[in-house]
Write a structure and sequence with these properties.
By secondary structure, this protein is mainly α. It is built from six helices and four strands. The longest helix has 15 residues. The radius of gyration is 14 Å and the shape is globular. It comes from Adineta steineri. Pfam families: WHD_UBR1. InterPro entries: UBR1-like_WH (IPR055194).
């Protein structure tokens, strides 16, 4: 089902790195003709991620907040093989596995 596929994609994308909403919205493929897809992304994020408030840097102005994968989902839903099948650079996979080990 499309909702579950988006959920899995979001979990494993957030396993690779903390992300801005705009990045997730742009990089998570949506089925064509689905009008509630953006609502699905937000409702999934509300469930699986913690929102990190934006910070302000004096030199660069305001920053956007990011989403960070909740600890529970590292244990239950993180799938290293899913991440490996979605990337083309080994260093990204190694960074993801370092994040997993820190968890």
């Amino acid at each position: 089902d499309d909702f579950e596929r988006r959920r899995i994609e979001l979990i494993n994308t957030l396993a690779m790195q903390d992300c801005h909403y705009s990045y997730l919205d742009e990089h998570i493929a949506e089925p064509k003709g689905v009008s509630n897809a953006k609502h699905d992304i937000q409702s999934i994020l509300d469930d699986i991620a913690e929102y990190i408030l934006p910070t302000v840097e004096i030199t660069n102005g305001p920053k956007q907040g990011k989403y960070k994968l909740k600890d529970l989902f590292w244990e239950v839903d993180f799938d290293p093989l899913h991440v490996l099948s979605r990337i083309n650079r080994r260093d990204i996979f190694e960074t993801t596995m370092q994040r997993y080990r820190k968890w």
